[in-house]
Write a structure and sequence with these properties.
The protein has 195 residues and is mainly α. The protein has helices at 2-10, 13-21, 25-46, 50-67, 77-99, 124-130, 136-147, 152-159, 163-194.
Length: 195
């Protein structure tokens, strides 16, 4: 068994896919484990909790298994799987959005804030934590545009919104992030002065 596990680690994605298509559960499990961390990192950017991200990862892997016979082995498996994770997370968001009462969030517009320079006072975790304060639609739009590289037309199609709404959501997300960043930066500066 130890030789078989070592053998799986040395196999290419294409080989794992081919063996998985033959119905070999061991290789399906190996494929799942190989990309679990990657899928989870993608799902976490589009969900509101770790539990929901786990559900997205599992649902998306089931979709991968269903569509595995249509996977083009000439393309990178990781990118193909990543798109499935993103689409699964967006589908889940749409279902959740239909079930929720829409709350109209009005952003307080203040004078234009100059983009702050990176400060040593905030850690990476602090900066990433700011994303959790964004409304879901802003967070998803930001991720799709800035991280995944989709254009506004594609985002509009995926999210069921207009292209102009996608642009507006991105602008509002960036503005909120700047405001949150400045607020966090000011509170970090005040804490350091008190010490």
């Amino acid at each position: 068994m130890a030789k078989r596990r070592l053998d799986v680690k040395e196999r290419s994605d294409r080989e794992l896919v081919e063996e998985s298509l033959k119905g070999k559960l061991f290789f399906r499990e190996a494929l799942y484990k190989r990309y679990f961390s990657y899928a989870m990192s993608v799902a976490l950017r589009y969900t509101i909790s770790r539990d929901e991200a786990m559900e997205v990862v599992n649902d998306s892997f089931l979709k991968v298994l269903d569509k595995l016979d249509s996977y083009d082995t000439a393309k990178e498996f990781k990118k193909w799987y990543g798109r499935i994770v993103i689409n699964t997370a967006i589908d889940r968001y749409r279902r959740r959005r239909k079930d929720e009462i829409t709350i109209n969030i009005e952003i307080e517009y203040s004078e234009r804030v100059k983009a702050p320079e990176i400060e040593e006072k905030l850690s990476v975790d602090d900066i990433l934590g700011l994303f959790s304060f964004l409304p879901d639609i802003y967070k998803i739009t930001f991720n799709l545009y800035e991280i995944e590289g989709y254009d506004h037309k594609e985002i509009g199609r995926m999210m069921g919104i207009s292209t102009s709404t996608s642009r507006s959501n991105l602008a509002r997300a960036k503005k909120m992030l700047r405001q949150l960043y400045n607020k966090k930066l000011n509170s970090a500066g005040n804490n350091n002065e008190a010490v």
